[in-house]
Specification:
It is an enzyme of class 3 (hydrolase). This protein is an alpha/beta fold. It has a single domain, classed as Purple Acid Phosphatase, chain A, domain 2, CATH 3.60.21. It has 3 helices and 16 strands. The strands form 2 sheets. Strands 8, 9, 10, 11, 12, 13, 14, 15 and 16 form a 9-stranded mixed sheet that branches. Strands 1-2-3-4-5-6-7 form a 7-stranded mixed sheet, with helices on one face. The longest helix is centred in the first third of the chain and has 16 residues. The radius of gyration is 17 Å and the shape is globular. About 35% of the residues are buried.
Length: about 220
């Protein structure tokens, strides 16, 4: 099992996982952001030599997380898809098999900007514009909401540790005032370099490990 970090958040306890996921025990909900399923197929259609199997590997990672936490709900914080999948794409065959392997799990998606291209697809998913869960507001775009702690994605936050050579660049959980941004889960997603503001923190998720950095000075 990868590293797990217990974190107090908005008066609740959540668990950060080194494979870029958050588990909320009180609601038995596993949260990930920005899976971008089908991105490899989309890039190959554009003529890029991207190897296949990316979506299948990401589904397997989700299966490991489900085995670790035994959640009742899987909630993707937007951009479940990268594009509207076409008939015959590997993900469309892999998804029903994966769902059959987890029959008691309820998969839900907070609609992201990429998901709007997939309207009308029937994949046994529950779709939300936004979702309230305990003290949290689950959104794709991680903008603050009065009276709620926002859990979001969209930004694909990453952080570079300076050091010898080129240093290390890794996805991060970005802990801001009343907003927590999850790292992108999809294996083919890039990252957007963040600079934590005053009092903000980042937790690096690198090779299954979690590495909290000190908060930026106030």
């Amino acid at each position: 099992m990868s590293d797990v970090l217990t974190l107090p958040l908005a008066g609740e306890t959540v668990l950060l996982h080194g494979d870029r996921a958050l588990y909320y025990p009180a609601e038995r909900a596993l949260l990930v952001a920005d899976t971008h399923f089908g991105k490899g197929a989309f890039l190959r259609r554009q003529g890029l030599a991207v190897p296949g199997g990316g979506s299948a590997a990401d589904l397997e990672r989700l299966s490991v997380l489900i085995g670790d936490f035994r959640p009742e709900r899987l909630i993707v914080l937007g951009d479940f898809f990268h594009h509207r999948p076409r008939p015959g794409e590997p993900f469309l065959a892999a998804w029903p098999r994966w769902r059959a392997a987890h029959p008691t799990l309820t998969p839900e998606v907070v609609i992201g900007n990429h998901d709007r291209h997939a309207e009308g697809l029937d994949l046994d998913l529950i779709w939300h514009d936004e979702l309230d869960l305990g003290p949290f507001r689950l959104r794709h775009d991680p903008e603050p909401v009065a009276g709620r702690h926002v859990l979001g994605g969209h930004l694909h936050p990453a952080y570079r540790l300076r050091g010898a050579g080129d240093g290390v660049r890794a996805p991060v959980f970005w802990l801001r005032e009343a907003v927590t941004v999850l790292p992108a889960f999809g294996g083919l997603t890039g990252g957007w370099a963040v600079r934590p503001g005053r009092g903000e923190r980042v937790v690096l998720a690198l090779d299954g490990g979690l590495y909290p950095l000190p908060a930026a000075p106030l």
